[in-house]
Amino acid sequence: MSHETTFVDRLPAAAFADAATAASKAPSILNTQPWLWEVHPDRLDLFANRRRQLAAGDPQGRQLMLSCGAALHHARVALAADGWAVHVDRLPHAGDPDLVATLVVSGRAPVTMEGLRLAHMIWIRHTDRRPVSEQPIPEVGLQAIEAAARAEGDLQILSSEDVADLGSAACRAAAVEAGDAQVAAELAYWTGRARLAGTGLPPSVLPAHPTQTIVPSRDFGRPGTLPVGAGHDHAAVYALLFGDGDGPHDWLRAGETLSAAWLTATTIGVSVVPLSGVVEVADTWHTLRRLLARLGYPYLALRLGIANPEQPGPPPRTPRLPRARVVDDSALSDQR
Ligand SMILES: Cc1cc2nc3c(=O)[nH]c(=O)nc-3n(C[C@H](O)[C@H](O)[C@H](O)COP(=O)(O)O)c2cc1C
pTM score, two decimals? Predict the structure, then answer.
C-alpha cells in the first residue's frame, strides 16, 4: 500500500480519535487533566472538565485553560503529523464557556519531517524537577524554543536581575500558598493517596529533598521519592509566557504556546518546568507584571535547562487517566 493510499483511506474521525489519545499526554496543572474530548465523524470538540479545576489554587480557571491549551496544541500537532489541515474555533460559543475548542478538517496537508518529529515528542516530553546540568542552553537552541513559542504567542526570556526578582517572588508565593489552608488541602489531595487513580503527582515524580535553585520550585508540601543528585540551577534560563489580554481565550492560547515551546525544547534535550504559584498569588502576579515592563499579562513562569544525564535514576513519569475517562468516541459508534 502506498503512503498516499494510506492517507486517502484514512477518515478524519480516525485521525481525531488518535489526536485525542495523543493529547491526553499533555502537561496539566497538578496533573489534573481537566479536559474531555468528544470525537465526532466531522469534528473534534474539546471541553473543560470543571470537576478537576482547582477551586482554591485556580479559582479563575487560568491554569485549567492553560492545560487545555497545551492539550489542544498536542492534538493539532498530532493531526498535522497525520497529514490533515485543520481549522480551530476557540471558545466558539459565548453561552458555553466549557466548550473550549472545535477542530474541523479543512483538507489534506503535506507532512514534514519537523512535524513528525514534534508529534513524536508528545510521547517523550515530561516534567523533570531535578536540577539541570551545568551546560548552558546553546543560543541556537534557545532561539528555536523562542521561535516555536512566538508562532503561537509570546515568551520573554528573563535577564539575570529579573531572575533574582522572580526568585524572591517565588519564595513569597510559596509562603502565601503554604499559609492558605484550602490551597494546602488541595495540594495534599493531588499529591496524596486519596487522589483519583491516574491523576495527580505520585511520590516518584517529586524530589526527595529540595533542589538547589535560584528560583525555588513549587513546594508540594511533602517530600517525594525521586532521587536528586548534586547540582545547582546556575545554568538554567527562566522565561515568562505572557500576552496582551488576561481572559480565557488568552490563557488557552498561552497553553498552546507552552506546548509549542515544550515540544521543541524536548527535540533538543532541553527540560522545561512550569512555575505557576507566582502567577496565582496576587502580590507576586504584580511582580511578574512589572518584570514584563507592562508589556503584557503574565501567564506562567518556566525554568529551561539542559537535562542532566548524571541525575540518579530514570526520568520521572507521571501517570494518566485511562483513555475512556478523557475521550468520548460514542458519537462514532452511534453512526455504525
Ligand atoms: C499550567 C501548568 C502549570 C504547572 N505548574 C507547575 C508548577 O508550578 N510546578 C511544577 O513542578 N510543575 C508544574 N506543572 C507541570 C505539571 O505538574 C505536569 O505537567 C503534570 O504533572 C504532568 O506530568 P508530565 O508533564 O511529566 O507529563 C504545570 C503544568 C501546567 C500545564
Answer: 0.96
